[in-house]
Design a protein that fits this description.
By secondary structure, the protein is of the alpha+beta class. It has 12 helices and 28 strands. α6 crosses α7 and α10 runs antiparallel to α11. The structure holds zinc ion. Zinc ion binds next to α7. The site of zinc ion has 5 residues, from α7.
Length: 550
């Protein structure tokens, strides 16, 4: 998620998008910087383990509990920052059995320790907190806790917090760059309900106060925003998949009323998804934690090893095909897209929210690879091309760094088209697949930067792709290929924003075979026999470039 480009197509979303743009013009707040910036108060510790233990009082719409932070000091320090939204109360912070002081500033909390924590040492503290968390009214596009009832009137309460951040409902070091290595999630719910969180269910404990605690253990590094509580009258069914790393458990948690539909619908989508994505991206990255789909009252979210599903057991995106080609109606958008994030977003995570394209561009692109795996390359290409109608070219795909801000919603469709274009430039499908698998292997369970991803693709491709990524990700405008006769020779040049822009592109004399030329920003002769201004054609199916306006 979050599919801003589609929101624009949906009626309620047009407002969200415009409001977002207005907000951007206003600039960034002190709170944005506290959240988005990696100050020494945050880089001084590396998170190793969380034990989140929270009780959901559904009638009061309140939560209370604690989170244990186990960390390794990366510097000597006495003070650190963690994050918790200001509307939630920090009841106390406990260190070695004693209460230690803290101060608050916006959604940040600063804790001071009684002695210096020495670089390299492992230590821990526990934050106790309580209050009424933000209620999400338009999840997954806002964030917080969704309080709903199912069709039988039973509570259905889930969390969703991508973008806004996990500190909207639990205390943590809320920055994408630091993923906890493993985590125990204990969620206590009123008797009769179940909680489904990430990883594997370890234990169910009836508590004296009439609540039931569900302990879920995540054995792999996990993004904060992926950590989830799904509380409802869930029923379970399961399956297994024999994949590249052996037997993968597939667990499905749905409401009783959905059971028959889910049994028919989930397997048809999820197994071909695993087959396609393991082929293109390598092994599912979380075998230890299993693969899960959990029915939710909101549309969906890539909650690691517990994908949120709310697409009503329909193909398409709520029945809609975003490409307009028909290929998007042959599969369930939410199952395929959100599961694609297990590789791009959950396995490989951007260090800064400004690089959300690492999550969304690759995942949006994965949709066409899923189609290709099932219906052939031409079908995947057609779908990918169809996504162009959703592009706005309104602002750069890479957002500003250190302020917890995403770039343009173009990171979805335009990002997918750029990646397909890069594949065309590389002109070797096996090499392209090796690059996609190589990314998932090289950056396995890591947080990464723009440079790491782009340099990796550039190096492995053997092509000069740095200017291509620079232009398409850092600037809103498309490069334009200009043709002109210069000193009697038919020439071409790129008009672009990126410094020293150059990109190979396929052109032909009308009706002939396409051939690669590699123009620069200076006019050079077009090396295609017989080409002139009137008969030259660009391969506009594979290359997304601008038009020269006379
Ligand atoms: Zn997504």
């Amino acid at each position: 998620m979050k599919l801003r480009f589609l929101i624009i197509l949906l009626s309620f979303g047009a407002l969200t998008s415009r409001a977002q743009l207005l907000k951007e013009k206003e600039g960034f707040t002190h709170a944005d910087s506290l959240r988005g910036n990696l100050t020494p108060l945050r880089t001084c510790y590396d998170i190793n383990y969380y034990h989140l233990d929270v009780k959901f009082n559904i009638t009061q719409r309140a939560i209370s509990g604690s989170n244990l932070f186990k960390f390794t000091a990366t510097e000597d320090f006495t003070k650190l920052q963690f994050d918790l939204f200001a509307n939630l109360t920090v009841d106390k912070v406990i260190y070695k059995g004693k209460i230690i002081p803290f101060t608050r500033d916006a959604n940040a909390v600063f804790v001071t320790f009684p002695k210096t924590i020495a670089k390299g040492s492992k230590d821990q503290f526990t934050v106790f907190y309580s209050g009424k968390p933000t209620v999400a009214v338009n999840a997954p596009w806002d964030g917080g806790v969704v309080f709903k009832k199912d069709s039988l009137g039973k509570p259905w309460v889930v969390t969703a917090c991508e973008g806004v951040g996990a500190s909207i409902w639990w205390p943590n070091k809320d920055h994408l760059s630091d993923e906890v290595d493993s985590m125990l999630i204990s969620i206590s719910v009123p008797k009769g309900l179940k909680d489904v969180s990430n990883g594997r269910l370890r234990k169910v404990t009836p508590l004296a106060d009439g609540y039931t605690r569900f302990d879920w253990f995540v054995a792999n590094p996990i993004n904060n925003y992926d950590v989830v509580a799904n509380i409802g009258d869930y029923v379970h069914f399961g399956d297994t998949y024999m994949g590249e790393k052996g037997k993968l458990t597939m667990d499905y948690w749905v409401l009783p009323a959905s059971l028959a539909k889910a049994k028919e619908h989930f397997g048809i989508n999820a197994k071909p998804m695993l087959k396609a994505f393991e082929h293109w991206f390598g092994p599912y990255p979380f075998y230890e934690d299993g693969y899960k789909l959990v029915e939710t009252p909101h549309l969906g979210m890539e909650h690691q090893s517990a994908t949120a599903y709310g697409n009503h057991f329909l193909n398409g995106y709520l029945g809609y095909d975003m490409s307009g080609t028909g290929w998007g109606k042959k599969w369930d958008y939410i199952i395929i897209h959100e599961s694609g994030h297990e590789w791009f977003g959950n396995n490989i995570t951007g260090k800064d929210l400004g690089d959300m394209w690492i999550h969304e561009s690759f995942t949006c692109y994965s949709e066409s690879l899923f189609i290709e795996d099932n219906w052939g390359k031409a079908a995947g290409q057609e779908y990918n091309f169809g996504l162009r109608s959703g592009i706005e070219n309104d602002s750069p795909i890479v957002g500003p760094y250190n302020v917890n801000k995403e770039g343009s919603g173009d990171m979805y469709p335009k990002g997918a088209i750029i990646l397909n274009m890069v594949r065309t430039i590389i002109n070797d499908d096996e090499k392209w697949r090796d690059i996609l698998r190589g990314l998932n292997k090289t950056f396995y369970h890591q947080t990464v930067t723009y440079n790491q991803v782009v340099n990796y693709i550039n190096e492995k491709s053997g092509k000069n792709l740095l200017p291509v990524f620079d232009q398409y990700l850092h600037y809103k405008d498309l490069p334009i290929l200009e043709f002109a006769t210069v000193r009697g020779k038919f020439c071409s040049r790129w008009i672009a924003n990126a410094k020293d822009f150059t990109m190979p592109i396929l052109v032909r004399v009308k009706g002939g075979e396409y051939k690669f030329i590699t123009p620069t920003t200076r006019f050079t002769p077009v090396d295609v026999e017989g080409a002139n201004k009137d008969n030259i054609e660009i391969d506009k199916l594979n290359f997304y470039v601008g038009e020269l306006v006379d």
